[in-house]
């Protein structure tokens, strides 16, 4: 990075494992006492001695020590050789963090849901005498902000983000990535009006790339008080190609201005010399980490007429990006704001060009100022502020541990849309813990379960644990604790509000169980007699109902039992189901002699039927030539009787009449998802909101099979043809004929012969014959790609190509629109589509260990829904290209801006004029 101020915007995250150990934590603590000044500003000089403060001589902004915002790190003064008379005071010292992977400042007393500009500055200046230039990451809360790559000791680097506070605090965290000690010179927070910078919202922040004042009369940096929001505007000119023009007149902002550039910036501009165009571009920084995703650039160009034009003359010009016209009305001054965003992930240098429309009739174009940002999705939430401190000698940053990126085994959190996540369960059983139980667990007001069993904890049991209102389970077995149970815990255990598990006392002290009471023989005998009588009555009733010589009622055998393919030999073990048993004649009647075909599959043909009460049903008849036999039929029947979820089809009954096998289940009037995606006859076209909802509901069904069934079930045949839709387009997973049960508490997989549908089959399962839940995740990833693209699992236009390969090739060029189903006509939130496509590719990783769980998939699809809904709530109009368009007009001015997706680039030093 070069230049006096350099903005690095490489997007990505280096995640670290968090381990919650009592008395030990690599994470650092935060304080919560920071206050704003009378402007609402928080202005911190990092490394300034405690209780020190001063007023900046240029901006008149009061700065204070950072000691009240953080209690880790070391204060240092910069090397004397870098101190000059013009150096700002806030660069004379730094705070560095040689220990701890993550060190966080807390900016408090904020307004939840309000918009803020947060700026961090860094000047190394060899403060440590080592002359080792560091590289480290910066996070806003638990989300990656940008990488700070210090390439010159004398350069001051600036990082700025505009974000919406999710709570009444914000955290700025410096992350040690192993490439040098993180440090910081200054930290500023400025409140913004909610109408400013609409691209910054609850689901997306915007990170500053550069902010330039075109054509200044000198090289002065403009900020507060000239800019009431204290933005930093850097001087920008390009002699001899551009001429600088200016005015002394005040330039006022238009009504409903979304950017409010200050008059001092709008009073200067540049125009081309001996030409009719203004060119500028920016170049990728080769030092950026290309592994970190960059969703593209967001450019804001500011225009204001500051020259007196001849009568009848109007300054009107065209804008092109990489020699392609920018769509939208041509800028016409006196005042205009345009906001441009272009296709993400296109790795080429953007070239902006402002052309004079008609040389004879119009003056040349002008440009007053330029801002460039990158979009930063906000996919992660920290935990509730009350979960802030939970370990021993050092305090754990509890606001981070519940983030979906930092979540670790043994920690469960509650996620809601209306509030930050809270920690609900901690399992540290057999974790090698030593020392005493910290009283800091009392901060976790939502904690329901705490398992500290089988460690080497000593000391007494803290009674403060009894004050946790939600705690229902406390397991302290297998430790060396003082055997005395505190009164509060003992009382809760006795009244049944807490399950307390402790070791029995070795010495018969206070925790010894009370002496058992003598039980009267009558108390024992009476219940036994009653039970015997009840059992006898039930047996008599069952024997009377059974016809003489009849076989036992049908029963479904365990899935892993061997089955013969000869149906006649199976009459001694028919189905025992609570569902209705149909005869073949009844099926002929309700299906009008099997005249209404709904579809065909490996089991056979599915027909539509109408029950006596008018209820429509689907009847799946097994064909004698079907690829799936009796075993699969019995397996599906067995599974359907024990799975009950709103996103799984419900079985109404079955038929086993002679050699006729059939299943009768609820009718799904809209048919299969495959039919809708392929646009088959009478299929209702699906918009993006409906597609994501269907994916979300299908994922919930799979999650239920994996996590809530006992034993868990692997579906083994997840595909669009097995996702059925009802009249409300609610999705339900169907066809459990190939499903496989396994004991997840004992095995991570089960070895079995390959079964499934080509195109959806997990390649790892295919090669190793080891089936796991991640095999379903892979198949679901294919389904999700079909939902995004509208393409089948295997494309056969010219030559066969798998959809994963097809999508990866196109997304490598950064063009999401070439992947998104054209039948959606671009009517979608592009961030939502990107997130879904990215999730699908994660699900289809070759290695199962790299794939998410269905629980993760459900959470991320819910975020896709939130992104789409947020776009709808903002009343965003979209054209067929997926661009956002806003238009506002009044009698006195034109104020329009349009968002397009600018090409993604790694970090660069700033625009280059030509």
Automatic annotation (TrEMBL):
Superkingdom of the source species = Eukaryota
Q: Where is the composition biased (Polar residues)?
A: 550-570
Please indicate if the UniProt record lists Translocase as a keyword. no
Residues in the signal sequence? 1-30
EC annotation?
Answer: 2.7.11.1
What terms describe the molecular function in GO for this protein? ATP binding; protein serine/threonine kinase activity
Q: What class of enzyme is it?
A: transferase
Name the SMART domains for this protein. LRR_TYP, S_TKc
Record's PROSITE patterns?
A: LRR (PS51450), PROTEIN_KINASE_ATP (PS00107), PROTEIN_KINASE_DOM (PS50011), PROTEIN_KINASE_ST (PS00108)
> Could you tell me what reaction this enzyme catalyses?
L-seryl-[protein] + ATP = O-phospho-L-seryl-[protein] + ADP + H(+); L-threonyl-[protein] + ATP = O-phospho-L-threonyl-[protein] + ADP + H(+)
Where do the annotations place ATP binding? 620
What sections of the sequence does the record tag as coiled-coil? none
Listed A to Z, the keywords are:
ATP-binding, Kinase, Leucine-rich repeat, Membrane, Nucleotide-binding, Phosphoprotein, Receptor, Repeat, Serine/threonine-protein kinase, Signal, Transferase, Transmembrane, Transmembrane helix
Q: Which SUPFAM superfamilies match?
A: L domain-like, Protein kinase-like (PK-like)
Q: Name one GO cellular component term.
A: plasma membrane
Bilayer-crossing regions: 519-543
Q: Where is the Protein kinase domain?
A: 592-865
Which InterPro entries does the entry link to? Kinase-like_dom_sf (IPR011009), Leu-rich_rpt (IPR001611), Leu-rich_rpt_typical-subtyp (IPR003591), LRR_dom_sf (IPR032675), Malectin-like_Carb-bd_dom (IPR024788), Prot_kinase_dom (IPR000719), Protein_kinase_ATP_BS (IPR017441), Ser-Thr/Tyr_kinase_cat_dom (IPR001245)
Q: How does it sit in the membrane?
A: Single-pass membrane protein
Q: Which Pfam families match?
A: LRR_8, Malectin_like, PK_Tyr_Ser-Thr
Q: Where in the cell is it found?
A: Cell membrane
- Which stretches does the entry tag as region Disordered? 548-570
Q: What is this protein called?
A: non-specific serine/threonine protein kinase
